[in-house]
Specification:
The chain is α+β, with helices and mostly antiparallel strands and 198 residues long. 22% of the residues lie in helices and 25% in strands. The protein has two domains: 34 residues; 159 residues, PEBP-like (Phosphatidylethanolamine-binding Protein, Alpha-Beta Complex).
Length: 198
């Protein structure tokens, strides 16, 4: 009788331990499966205010017009390429905001872009990567230059993880065209916002 009780207690304890271990394993799998895409910059000053090196050198601004260094991690499973954009939703001179930079067909193995990668005909971007047409009319980065006296604008960097290697868009496509097409293949996205006013 006592032996049976001990066996039952041992069996019950073992069952509880196995259930707890199974629960932990499931929780770890769930957490691992939900890796979050994150976009940031190694230049910590960018989070506070866009440094002059990244602002435009036109329209009365005299910055360095270099694209900032950016990095990302946590791409969803199945990611085959990325799109990276810089958009100003606060540009009141244009009712649809302003596209400052469009980069697409970035290989899935890419996890960062160095400072200055956004020049026209860039040799720093990974092979096969393309830049779209900004609202300035060129295929390159152009930095912030809001009107004097405006409240600081929100310069929104967005990384889109896509399920296709290449976007089916014409060469020299606009930001709106690239993003609209990218949304049909979207696996995840992350945003990093920098502010600038003058």
């Amino acid at each position: 009788m006592t032996t049976n009780r001990i066996l039952r207690s041992s069996t019950l304890a073992l069952a509880v331990v196995l259930l707890v271990l199974a629960g932990l394993s499931a929780a770890q799998t769930k957490t691992a499966g939900k890796a979050k895409l994150v976009l940031s910059s190694p230049d910590t000053k960018l989070a506070a205010k866009v440094p002059e090196i990244y602002t435009a050198n036109l329209f009365g601004c005299s910055g360095g017009n270099q694209s900032p260094p950016l990095q990302w991690s946590g791409a969803p499973a199945g990611t085959k390429s990325f799109v990276l954009t810089l958009f100003d939703p606060d540009e009141h001179g244009d009712p649809s905001g302003w596209w400052h930079w469009i980069v697409y067909d970035l290989p899935a193995t890419t996890t960062n872009l160095p400072k200055g990668a956004g020049v026209e005909r860039s040799t720093v971007l990974p092979s096969g990567t393309l830049q779209g047409r900004t609202d300035l009319g060129n295929d390159a980065y152009h930095g912030p230059c809001p009107d004097k006296g405006d409240p600081p604008h929100r310069y929104t960097f967005t990384i889109y993880a896509l399920s296709v290697d290449k976007l089916d868009v014409p060469a020299d496509s606009s930001g709106a065209m690239v993003v609209s097409t990218a949304k049909d293949h979207l696996l995840g996205k992350a945003v990093f916002v920098a502010h600038y006013g003058r």
